[in-house]
TrEMBL record:
Cell division is among the record's keywords: no
Reaction(s) catalysed by this chain's protein: Ni(2+)(out) + ATP + H2O = Ni(2+)(in) + ADP + phosphate + H(+)
The protein, known as: Nickel import system ATP-binding protein NikD
Organism: Halobellus litoreus
GO MF, one example: ATP binding
InterPro entries: AAA+_ATPase (IPR003593), ABC_Ni/Peptide_Import (IPR050388), ABC_transporter-like_ATP-bd (IPR003439), ABC_transporter-like_CS (IPR017871), Oligopep_ABC_C (IPR013563), P-loop_NTPase (IPR027417)
Amino acid sequence: MTDEPLLAVEGLRTTFETETGELVAVDGIDFEVRRGETVCLVGESGSGKTVAVESIARLIDQPPGRIEGSVRFRGEELTDLSDEELRPYRGASIAYVFQNPQDALNHCYTIGWQLIEAIRVHEDVSTSAARARAIDLLDTVGIPDPASRITEYPHQFSGGEKQRVMIAMALVTEPDLLVADEPTTALDVTIQADILQLLEELKATYGMGVLFVTHDLATVSEIADRVVVLYAGKVMERGGVLELFEHPAHPYTRRLLACLPGWSGGVDPVEGAERGGIAGSLPDPNDPPDGCRFAPRCAYAEPACTTGDQPPEVDLGGDHLVSCIHYDAGDDPSVLTDGTPPSDGVDGSPQRGVTEDD
């Protein structure tokens, strides 16, 4: 790995103009991806994960969307490029694999036709050469008997096979960065494991960086090198996967981990005893709350959590950062781990220092 990250995102903010005003989907987030590593963006549905990764290559329609901030890829500032200048990056150096291959594939054309078309868009090769390359790619992603199956239509492939075809399309240009947006969500558990293993093998083979979007922390534990936890368009916590799982710092991260069946490491007795989800819902993106975005649902929120901006990230060491006032100088993070039940939560859960008058 070089010192310079493959992808460096700073202050990314993506909003949408709606009939009810400005909707804030991503609000000033930072993250990096290096060659040969997998970085997972984690959070509940609606946390801004998909919008964040689609903003990298400007897949968001503008208008109604508006993308601000810095996106540097291989040292190049992508936000300075026109759509025409950005085109060689989209699907080439930066490739996407989306959640539902059923919708991504055209059922009127054979798998082979679609792969050959993708190859010839990016490479000046003959149809016969593109066909040979397509067969090789299908073989690479584990499609059996690719020479004959290249003539089949999407409906003749299983869900897992369709996703493998989509990965093959993403590999056409041997990208530097593969963005995988919930690529296993619609698949059977055993097929999910196969796809994850395939992505790991391809990452090693091609030396790619992988940016993986998921809400499934079990998946994160298997594939991630580093993790970025998003909530309501803000970063709550980030760090190496082992550090984050063994020593989760932010109350939101701790609640996410407490939802994992059979998992209790690092979660205090109060939170660890509560399973089955997080009470409440994400804030209205048209009217996000002041202070920490998670404060309205946090069992440890204090008045200071509900004013100003999102707390600055505090470095806990080893690239482990958390955005929570309890880690600021002069505060005491032990309130999150001592197991002492706070009082009077707004969502029915315990909560420190916030009363109905607040």
